Fold each of these.
Amino acid sequence: MKHAFLDQYSELDSFVHRLDPRTKALMVLAFVLVVMATPPTAWVSFALCTALMAGLTLLARLPPLYVLKRSVVVLPFVLVVALSLPFFEDGREAGSYNIEWWKVSISYDGLLLLWNVVVKSWLSALSLILLSATTPFPRLLKGLERLGVPRVMVMILSFMYRYIFVLVDEAMRLGRARDSRNLGGGLLWRARTLGNMIGTLFLRSYERAERVYQAMLARGFDGEIRTLDELRIGRADLYFGLACCFCLATIWLAKLR
């Protein structure tokens, strides 16, 4: 099981890694809000946001290629939804294509809207990747709990982190069993087999969840996230927060020009 998939570099020693998770979580939230409020034509603001993320990546001593690869994973899911926007948004026509009797037109406003969705999604995903890559997940959950996030949401995130690897391994075992029994069936056979695999995975996950829940109750679990060290906001957190606020204010003023 690849347990370091989500926070592979969270145990590195850097200035960003040593910050309190609450400070980083609040700064990520502020960054996402600024990005979402930035108009799509504010090119300077988007460039400054990218520069800020690149600077934090270097400050955290994270491999830039690793961060870039993780961030572009979100783009296919965004494009599936956003690719239709240029065709249905009204505005000045950028081009048209005839598909037999159907004329398809692309507008400049639609292309601008597509850019807006893609770049904001990518920057938001980039900030979340930096947060998870510089904070051990238990400390991050503890910080979210201290910030007032509902306990049930923290518990769901905790269980997701603990057991998503188990589900992936279970799905891989089912896939290997299918491949070892594959005698060249047709499309219908593969679809039926995939449906059976999904049903089997759901049943096994449900049964495992019941066993885990009973084991946790037997050990006195009360829903609180516990860590070996207590969270403490120090002077470095204050300096980092002020520096980030200054950068975000600069980005905000740049979009007004």
Amino acid sequence: MQINQMETPVLILDMDKMEANIRTMQKLVQSCGIALRPHYKSHKCPQIAQWQMEAGAVGITCAKLGEAEDLVNAGIKDVLIANQVIDPAKIARLAHLARGCRLGICVDDEENINNLEKAAALAGSTLYCLIEYEVGMNRCGVET
């Protein structure tokens, strides 16, 4: 197929450059003694997330529950949702999803934490909560 015959949007990769970039980033963070958890929004491609994991990433970060579901369904076993999930129906989906992976979620509200805990207990799963701190952007997070 010729490039001008492809329907857009379409992802076209230079595999050599992409693999080199993944290796370079992994080496950089390892040399600093830290773990890499790339954000899914940079590519929104489960296969690329899998390659990042194979290169040594500890997990993948995403923004939304639907993205986490895509990642887990693609075989990613460690996912962090970097936002709060507060809708009761989504909390139930989240707790169910956590039965098949290590699922982290950012929190900044005690009631939300209690709702997540109850849903996880009902689903027989574990949710890993990270407390989000307000860092001066006035978007979310606790101050103490």
Amino acid sequence: MAVPDDMTSREPDGHRSLATGRLWAGGVTTAVVAALVVVAGVFIARRVLGIPVLAPRSVGNLGSSTTVIYAALAAACTLLATGLLHVLLLATPSPLRFFGWIMALADVIAVAAPFAQPASLPSKVFTAVINLVAGVAVISLLSGVGSSALRPVAPRTCGERGHAD
């Protein structure tokens, strides 16, 4: 039996279980993807397009140590999002819908944030693009992970209650 995208909207509480290991394994893997999106984005901006994202052009194709911090921050935010998803899956109705909205709004903030920094317009725009791509990747991957971590629980029969008749 396939698990619906949003199990809590179709089944009452107590008729689903959460595969926690599967959820966090997917979260860690998604964190790696988010970090690599940042590294790839910085490389493309600096090497291919010549846009000095995160540091002056003179520091090389991948920027400076700020690139590592940026990638680590993307991974850390992804793990935080996995924790949020975990709580939502355990405690809310329609957890994937709430997760999508919360994360989409967080991504809007991440896309707007570079425009509040003192940098050239091309640098701001490309940093916003990197944040958008990373955010979309995290939202889509963790939504799928959350859906696959939900497991239907078969109703018990009288003989399975754990006590003698």
